[in-house]
């Protein structure tokens, strides 16, 4: 785990954009299919809006998926799919693809089945996974002290799981830990002084984010600014 602290969010974003650009350039030159999972928090949405600044990347090889999603309509302004689509913009998505996690709002089990089928490529090794951090220590939709998170921790295969959030909309879909860790690089994008305490707690307590920070199976970089 590498922690990189920056004086401002703008400097962090510049450095993070450069890192992503280098990794995408390398992967798109050496692979026909580059898989990236995106989180839907505000600080990451700001970053995605700048992806059109990235040059010399064959976006037609890039396939974006979602780290997690609320079980709501994809057109909702609370939907990660909607917000990430807006942030990436037409210039990227006319070439790259973004795969949703919601297909059937009437049947949760059927939706989960469809989500797994459509997102099966993202269960394999990915180039980059971008995560964020909640003040309760959650990441993706893996919340503390839920039986669903406990199950997501113990699964030995990459998977997409259901979970329950502490706030509305409560029903969520999320990649499990095995899937999140199945990546060449994991980036934890953290903004705010209040997250310093969460990062410290994660070193001593078993919060969901602790399992990401302490993994030895993937390269984890924490980009943090007050």
Structure description:
By secondary structure, the chain is of the alpha/beta class. It has a single domain, classed as Rossmann fold (3-Layer(aba) Sandwich), CATH 3.40.50.1360. Helices cover 36% and strands 23% of the residues. The protein contains nine helices and ten strands. It has helices spanning 9-30, 42-48, 80-88, 90-93, 108-118, 147-154, 177-181, 195-204, 208-213; strands spanning 2-6, 34-38, 62-66, 68-70, 97-98, 126-131, 160-164, 171-175, 183-191, 219-225. A seven-stranded parallel β-sheet has the order 1-10-9-6-2-3-5. It has a three-stranded antiparallel β-sheet with strand order 4-8-7. α2 runs parallel beside α3 (80-88). The longest helix has 22 residues, at 9-30. It is globular and about 45 Å long. The mean pLDDT is 94.
Q: pLDDT under 50 segments (min length 5)? A: none
Q: In percent, how much strand structure appears in the residues?
A: 15-25%
**Classification by helices and strands:** alpha/beta
The best one-word shape is globular
CATH fold-level topology: Rossmann fold
CATH top-level class = Alpha Beta
What is the compact description of this entry?
The chain is 36% helix and 23% strand. By secondary structure, the chain is an alpha/beta fold.
């Amino acid at each position: 785990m590498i922690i990189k602290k920056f004086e401002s969010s703008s400097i962090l974003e510049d450095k993070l954009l450069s890192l992503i650009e280098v990794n995408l350039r390398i992967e798109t030159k050496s692979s026909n299919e580059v898989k990236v999972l995106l989180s839907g928090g505000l600080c990451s949405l700001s970053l995605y809006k700048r992806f059109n600044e990235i040059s010399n990347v064959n976006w037609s090889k890039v396939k974006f998926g979602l780290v997690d999603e609320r079980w709501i309509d994809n057109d909702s302004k609370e939907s990660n799919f909607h917000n990430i689509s807006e942030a990436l913009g037409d210039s990227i998505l006319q070439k790259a693809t973004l795969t949703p996690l919601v297909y059937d709002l009437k049947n949760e089990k059927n939706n989960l089945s469809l989500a797994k089928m459509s997102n099966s490529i993202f269960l394999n090794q990915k180039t980059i996974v971008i995560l964020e951090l909640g003040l309760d220590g959650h990441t993706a939709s893996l919340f503390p002290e839920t039986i669903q998170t406990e199950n997501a921790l113990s699964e030995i295969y990459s998977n997409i799981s259901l979970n329950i959030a502490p706030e509305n909309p409560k029903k969520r879909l999320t990649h499990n830990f095995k899937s999140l860790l199945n990546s060449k690089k994991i980036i934890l994008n953290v903004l705010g002084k209040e997250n310093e305490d969460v990062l410290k707690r994660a070193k001593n307590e078993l919060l969901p984010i602790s399992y990401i920070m302490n993994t030895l199976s993937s390269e984890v970089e924490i980009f943090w600014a007050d």
